[in-house]
Design goal:
Blueprint (H helix, E strand, L loop, with lengths): L5 H12 L1 H26 L1 H5 L5 H36 L1 H9 L4 H41 L12 H28 L2 H6 L12 H20 L3 H36 L1 H4 L2 H12 L1 H30 L1 H8 L4 E7 L16 H14 L4 E16 L5 E2 L8 E11 H8 L9 E5 L5 E8 L4 E14 L11 E7 L2 H15 L7 E9 L3 H14 L14 E6 H54 L4 H39 L6 H35 L1
Parallel strand pairs: 3-6, 4-8, 5-7
Antiparallel strand pairs: 1-9, 1-10, 2-3, 2-4, 2-9, 5-8, 6-7
């Protein structure tokens, strides 16, 4: 063709004629580009730094969350665009084959494809950047509100972010173009013309893949259910996710075929009009359906996990703050009840009464009243669990079973102040979290030597369901509640005798003060405190101690809400993108199956199948295909709950009931939205099939 102007016209006409396919694709690309640009602009926005002078972690949170979001959004966009591009090329095979038959060579078709890609790039990438510029300020407002930061003034345009976003998606469209050109290059005109008319052979039962799916799913579920600590959850989460993803693809690719063939062998089920058509149709097309169904299932799982986990963290932030910061002002001191070699002759025992009096006097000297002051005492040490159920301070002993356990010791008074539960413990009695037995024995054994220097046994009065020590669950936790401070001191002396001065743990004294002033005054008090202690004389009379820390609840709350708000924003932002992708995948799947089923149902009606029977069979098939991914995703969520709960303990959230309610609520809302999508996309399928 000598007239070069015909190519742009053909490309535009092709997009216009196939707008049912191209319009959702361009809109999805536009949305992905806008999302990536917005996150890129938030990372680079100088207003974020300028508006957080007293919140050094504020900019860090925005930067980290948006950087993670950009990476995930782009990787997902690449997968999504390649998936939809494959569908589009399949639908256009007849059109491209017709071009070839009418005299256009493969080179001419390639030119048309290049121009089409350019049009899509202008509309998708250009429109996405414009959309990102428009909505950047709104998203910035929402993000800063959620993390508790002031909103930057002015309108910011990130030229670097714009260029970086455009370059990434141009590269992505370039990859799709190369894939399409290669398909045209290796295909023959007759193959293109037959395109969507090529039927699928009945798939064979793949026993190896079936067994692989069962094994990987079982292994992934086992890891998720048996994970006991937050650190284990971090280390094993992606292993479990990988196994479940592999198992999901095998499930839909091989296990589904096995199940469909089993249904076909069940004559009472199979030889009904709706079941016969639905099962046979799914069986013969399962090879091409499997990947799409698995993708939808994984997307559904990702959305529900992200939203439920981040929502749990955000709604539980107030509880986390109360547990981490019991007072408006929180003071902690680490000390050793015995002198160490490096302490020298000036060592004197730590005096908690003097420390409490000095802290109280200083706060009141700033013109505020202390409305409440309380103290607590605790210490912890590592131990190994022996086969007989006892614990040993030789934590790496050959006969120790399982991972190292962290044992924290607190008094009944401190336990009661946290929980309100009165135990009335006597000498030799304890309440224990993390142990389900009638007694607890600790063998004070010198590590590496196996020499036992003592043994302590407690009668367990109560097995605690919830951990009264709210530290993050980074190891297997055992919390030992004993009668009084004397019992805690005795435990400390025993572990010091076993571990020796090089390795024994420090004791922790904590004081919590509530005061009658606002946050601004508290910050002034904190600044004054740092000035007072600078010369060292402030602590005269408090004895010897190793470290001291002075924290405000307001500062901890700001950081906690910044972290939780950032996670929730990221979860909602990415969740929206994933939901959009899920809807579009379902939409394209319905269209694809509609065109494939159209001729089949027409033939069935010609041989005597009534219109009502056609509708019933269509309805049965759509329900089967449509709700299978979300049903499997629900099972994934159920098994994943324990691991998500353990991950949340790393953020000091131990509220299982809250996490369960957020998971259930998220799932119910998602199912409702999924049902709406079903009703909308099913109409498209019916229109195509019944046309």
């Amino acid at each position: 063709m000598r007239n070069a102007g015909v190519y742009p016209k053909l490309a535009m006409q092709s997009i216009r004629n196939n707008r049912r396919f191209y319009l959702p694709y361009i809109l999805a690309l536009l949305g992905d580009v806008a999302a990536v640009y917005i996150m890129s602009a938030l990372v680079r926005d100088p207003g974020v730094k300028n508006m957080t002078p007293g919140r050094p972690n504020g900019y860090m949170y925005v930067n980290i969350f948006m950087s993670i979001g950009m990476f995930i959004a782009f990787v997902f966009s690449a997968i999504f665009v390649l998936y939809i591009n494959g569908f589009l090329m399949k639908q256009r095979k007849k059109e491209l084959g017709l071009y070839n038959i009418l005299g256009m060579g493969k080179g001419h078709i390639a030119v048309v494809l290049v121009i089409e890609t350019a049009y899509i790039g202008v509309l998708g990438i250009g429109g996405g950047i414009v959309t990102g510029l428009i909505f950047h300020k709104l998203v910035s407002l929402i993000l800063h509100q959620m993390v508790g930061m002031s909103v930057p003034l002015g309108f910011y345009i990130s030229w670097d972010g714009m260029a970086w976003t455009a370059a990434m998606f141009l590269l992505l469209l370039g990859v799709t173009l190369l894939v399409n050109l290669n398909k045209v290059r290796v295909s023959r005109p007759i193959e293109l013309l037959r395109g969507g008319s090529v039927g699928e052979r009945e798939p064979k039962t793949k026993w190896f893949m079936t067994m692989l799916g069962v094994v990987t799913l079982t292994a992934g579920y086992y890891i998720a259910v048996t994970t006991r600590t937050g650190v284990d959850a971090i280390m094993l989460y992606f292993v479990a996710v990988f196994l479940v993803i592999v198992g999901t693809y095998c499930l839909f690719t091989a296990v589904s075929i096995f199940i469909l063939k089993a249904l076909r062998r069940n004559k009472g089920f199979y030889y009904r009009t709706s079941h016969f058509i639905g099962v046979s149709g799914m069986l013969y097309r399962m090879k091409q359906n499997a990947v799409g169904l698995a993708n939808i299932c994984i997307l559904c799982t990702m959305v529900m996990v992200m939203l439920s986990g981040t929502l749990s963290l955000y709604l539980g932030t107030e509880e986390i703050i109360r547990e981490q910061y019991p007072g408006d002002i929180n003071v902690s001191v680490s000390y050793f009840p015995q002198a160490r070699a490096e302490d020298g002759e000036d060592w004197t025992p730590f005096n908690p009464e003097v420390m409490l009096a000095k802290q109280t006097a200083f706060i009141e000297s700033q013109g505020v009243s202390v409305t409440q002051a309380r103290t607590s005492l605790d210490f912890g040490f590592g131990a190994g669990r022996l086969p007989d159920g006892s614990y040993t301070t030789d934590r790496f002993a050959e006969d120790a079973v399982g991972a190292v356990v962290s044992i924290t010791c607190i008094t009944e008074e401190d336990y009661t102040s946290v929980t309100g539960d009165v135990l009335h413990l006597g000498p030799g009695e304890a309440a224990v979290y993390g142990v389900n037995a009638e007694e607890l024995t600790i063998r004070w054994t010198v590590p590496g030597e196996g020499r036992e220097v003592g043994r302590t046994t407690y009668s367990i009065v109560k097995n605690l369901k919830d951990n009264p020590d709210f530290s993050p669950n980074i190891t297997q936790m055992v919390t030992l509640v004993v009668s009084d401070e004397a019992a805690v001191d005795e435990l400390w002396a025993n572990q010091a005798a076993a571990y020796g001065p090089e390795d024994y743990s420090s004791m922790h004294w904590n004081a919590y003060f509530n005061v009658d002033c606002d946050e601004q005054k508290l910050e002034e008090i904190q600044s004054g405190y740092y000035d007072v202690i600078s010369d060292g004389s402030f602590y005269d009379g408090t004895g010897s101690w190793a470290r001291s820390n002075w924290e405000l609840r307001s500062e901890g709350a700001a950081n906690a809400y910044g972290l939780a708000g950032g996670f929730l924003f990221l979860g909602m932002f990415l969740g929206f993108i994933f939901i959009l992708a899920t809807v579009l995948m379902i939409y394209y799947k319905q269209i694809s199956e509609g065109y494939e089923d159209k001729e089949r149902f027409e033939i069935m009606q010609k041989v005597g199948l009534s219109r009502s029977e056609v509708k019933r069979s269509i309805h049965s098939q759509i329900l089967m295909v449509f709700f299978l991914p979300v049903a499997v995703a629900s099972v994934h969520i159920l098994f994943d709950f324990n691991m998500v709960e353990k991950l949340l303990t790393l953020f000091y959230l131990h509220n299982t009931a809250l996490t369960a309610l957020c998971t259930l609520g998220t799932a119910l809302v998602f199912f409702l939205a999924y049902g709406v999508v079903y009703l909308l996309t099913a109409r498209t399928y019916y229109k195509i099939v019944e046309r």
